[in-house]
Amino acid sequence: MQKPANPCFSSGPCAKRPGWSLAALEGALTGRSHRAAPSRERLREVIELSRRILEMPEGWVLGIVPASDTGAVEMAMWNLLGPRGVDVLSWESFSAEWARDAQRELRLADLRIIEAPYGQLPDLSRVDPARDCVFVWNGTTSGVRLPNGDWISDAREGLTICDATSAAFAMELPWHKLDVVTWSWQKVLGGEAAHGMLALSPRAQARLVAQKPSWPMPKIFRLNEGVWKGDTINTPSMLCVEDALDGLRWAESVGGLRGLIARSEANLAAVAEWEAQSPWARFLAEIPETRSCTSVCLRFRALEEGKQAATAKRMAVWLEEQGVALDAASYRDAPPGLRIWCGATVETSDVRALLPWLDEAWRVASGA
User: Fold this and answer.
1) Are 248 and 197 in contact, with CB atoms under 8 Å apart?
2) How far is C-alpha 261 from the chain's CA centre?
3) Sign of torsion, CA 347 285 198 158?
4) Rounded distance, CA 317 to CA 333, Å?
5) How far is the C-alpha of 364 from the C-alpha of 342, rounded, in Å?
6) What whole-number percentage of the chain has pLDDT above 90?
7) Strand 338-341 versus strand 295-300 pairing type
8) Which single residue of 62, 253, 355, 365 could bond 274 by disulfide (Cβ 3.0 to 4.6 Å)?
C-alpha cells in the first residue's frame, strides 16, 4: 500500500503547509526586540493578513495574545463576563473546561451549563439571547461542529464568545452572530504553538471599556489598546511570527478562505466515502451536518466496551510504527478511537492513502 507523503495527522500542533521547510523561517527577526519597528511591522502583518483572509467585518479589532487559544478564551472570559447571566455550551473536552472555569474559578453566580455527550450538540434552543454565551464552534476532541449560527439571535443582548480554534480558516464563521472569536496559530494553518488570536466585535469592545471585573486580573490577561496594533502583552517568538506569516501567505495562494474551506471539506468527503463502507469505523459525530472537516473523530461500530481503549491504543501505536499516521489517537477524555486531522494543510491524496492503513491497523489490533 502507498503511504501518505506526510504522516502528520495530529490535531495540534497540526501539519505544516505543503512544501514547508525550515527555509520558510530564513527571514525571521531572531535576536531582535519584538518592540523594534521591523518586528512590530511583522506582528501587524499577521493581524492584517488574518483579518483579510477570514473576511472579518469592519469595526472588529484583532490582537495576538499569550498562551495559544486557551489564553485567548480565558482572557475573553476574565475580561468580559460578569454583568449578565452566562450560558456555557459543553459537548467535548475544551468546552467542558470553559464551563468548569466559569463555575469554579470565576464563580459566576448566574451560570447555566447546557451539556451534551460526545458525538452530539446541546439543545441550542435553550440559549437565552439576554445572556452571554460561551461555546466552541468546532469540538476539537469530539469532531462535532455547529452547522450554522441560526440559533443565535440577531437581537441578542448578551455577548457570544466563540472558541473557533479548530474552525477558523476551515469553516464559515457568521461574524454578524459573534462578538468574540478566538483561535491559535497551531491549527488550520499549521503554525507553531503558544500564540493565540483574540477578535472583538464593537459590542464586545464596548463591554471591555465598561466592564470592571470583580476578580483579580493577571497581567497577561490585561488588555490595552496597543494589543490591537501588534503591541503584544508578553514576548512573542519572532520565529513563530515568521512561520505564521508563511502560513498566511500560503493561504492566500490557495484561494484564501474559500480555498482553505474547499481543501478541508474535500478531506472530510474522502473519509466519509470510506466510512460509509467500513465494517468497523464510524464517525463519533452522529449527524452528518455536524461532522467536523478538521478534527475527524472515529469510533468503533461494534466492539465491546472493555476492549475499545486497548484496541484504539494498539492501532495508534501500529500506525506510528509504520510511519503512516503520527499522533492519531483520540483525545484522552473522548471515547476510544482515532482522531485524524483533515485541516487545509493536509493533502487529500494523503488522506486517501491513509485510509487502507486504518483498515490494516484494525485488522492487526483486533485480530479480525
Assistant:
1) no
2) 14
3) positive
4) 18
5) 24
6) 99
7) antiparallel
8) 355
